[in-house]
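Methods — Computational structure assignment.
A single polypeptide chain was analysed. Its primary sequence is given first, followed by the predicted tertiary structure written as structure tokens.
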Amino acid sequence: MPPSRPRLRAEDVRIVRIAVPAFAALVAEPLMLLADTAIVGRLGTTPLAGLSVASTVLLTFVGLCVFLAYGTTAAVGRALGSGDRRAALALGVDGLWLAASIGVVAAAVAAGAARPVVGLFGTSDAVADQAVTYLAISAIGIPAMLVVLAATGVLRGLQDLRTPLVVMIAANVVNAVLSVTLVHVVGLGIAGAAIGTVLAQLAAATWLVAVVVRVARSHGAPLGPTRTGLAQASRAGVALVVRTLTLRAALLLATFAAAAQGDASLAAQQVAVTVVSVVAYALDSIAIAGQTLTGHALGASDPAGARRLTRRMVGWGVASGVVAALVVVALHRVLPGWFSGDDEVRAVLVPALLVVAVIQPVSGVVFVLDGVLIGAGDGAYLAWAGVATLVAYVPLVVAVWATDAGLTWLWVAYGGFMLARMATLVLRERSDRWLVTGATAHVPPTS
């Protein structure tokens, strides 16, 4: 027993060195949306409800491309673990090119389809107008958002967590200042919030790309796209897109159900989702450690180390989830007043936030194991598991929708979704099929 203690302390140090700066950088990302929610919320319930719809659509576009960060982190981490830093950077540069290409297409689709997509939510005309305005402007920043994802993935894979942290803190300061100025001083309303966020995203993307390019040059890595690298990134991305699509579909269903309950419930849903996003990114810091350390360990042909780190990170995930739950409980009556002056919105939101708090320890386990399996290159299993959990969730959210049970029960249904995710991930972690070593992962899709 005594000899194991130093090893555990060393593992904890490795986890903390990655998770702490990752925590700050990850929390900084949704803080842009949090700032917009607080700023727009002061304009009234209608703009806040419009932001709920627009941000759901926008985050779906961007969320489907989260593989640009996750897949790149895993690929770069494996190459680094095998001792080939030049190859790791070449993979990272390919990820940037893929992000920029997808971003241009996604921006065109989001801007062109803004009106019909928003119309699918069945909101009032006033809410729809606000949503279209925010979405059409924000679409301009999608390429920058995706490049930020890819560049952050490269740096995480290289275990450089400080640079993304500094960049995202600076971007959030710029966003907050610009949004307040454009919305409340210049008087542009919800459009001002969108413009401020786009400008902050463009600045962050430029900064991060410059850092990656400088490091790539210093190690002689190619700066142009390569057919092999793009193909590898695309193949790895397909499974992660399916996995992410199931997560976004769950949130889309919840937003549709909230919209059917009226503008107050939809506005409250926006605040609840924003709070959950901030907490989720905080919990995801351990998952980032999972992606980075798992990829590195398996790249170095150390499956025992990967499993040992995983078990330790799950413990950190549970503890972090409990802390997050306590924070939400402590603030559940205070938070609604920060985002809305509407008594009806606040009344709907208070009990829903209690359910959100209960879900957090489960979320801590889910995010860690999700990150570990992404780091192992086990995307195919995550895709199939995502489909299974979505199938389990649909009857729950439909029941809430059909019975008009209210926002609190909508979040109870989401808790069922998270429990289903945890079950599929724990089952996979207990097997050995994800522990594939070497510079490249070829993990079987089923257990």
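Note: Residues 4-41 form the longest helix (38 residues).
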